[in-house]
Amino acid sequence: xxxxxxxxxxxxxxxxxxxxxxxxxxxxxxxxxxxxxxxxxxxxxxxxxxxxxxxxxxxxxxxxxxxxxxxxxxxxxxxxxxxxxxxxxxxxxxxxxxxxxxxxxxxxxxxxxxxxxxxxxxxxxxxxxxxxxxxxxxxxxxxxxxxxxxxxxxxxxxx
Length: 159
What we know:
- By secondary structure, the protein is mostly beta strands.
- The protein has one helix spanning 120-131; strands at residues 18-22, 31-34, 37-47, 56-63, 69-75, 79-83, 85-95, 100-104, 110-115, 135-143, 146-155.
- The strands form 3 sheets. The protein has a 5-stranded antiparallel sheet with strand order 9-8-7-10-11. A 4-stranded antiparallel sheet has the order 2-3-4-5, with no helix packed on it. The chain has a two-stranded antiparallel ribbon with strand order 1-6.
- The radius of gyration is 21 Å and the shape is elongated.
- The model has no long low-confidence stretch (mean pLDDT 85).
């Protein structure tokens, strides 16, 4: 045995950001990782097997955070990475001057690390509902260490 002391640096709980799934089982509307980005599949086409080799799946997908279109071709028998995608609703408490929002969590705490959405209609809906005193609920999508506001709803009448 050696007398060396091992020191491991770790900042997360070790949970994987993705899980493997066979390419032939991924369907339209599902999620896939293309070029390291979490994407929603909008089109899948499968080519037949050739003289030598595998049937191939052609995926067309949209990045869930940047809305960029990405494509990939994978043999249908191979595994693809599928991202864990979570969607959580929070109530809007405050909008700061620097473009960050303050959100109320289910446990009663606050979440202050998200920026206003870049989409003008969503940010406009958030601002107008907040200024009118309505209860504004935002949906936050998170995947692979990224988070972004993806939907806004107004609940109730307010003042």
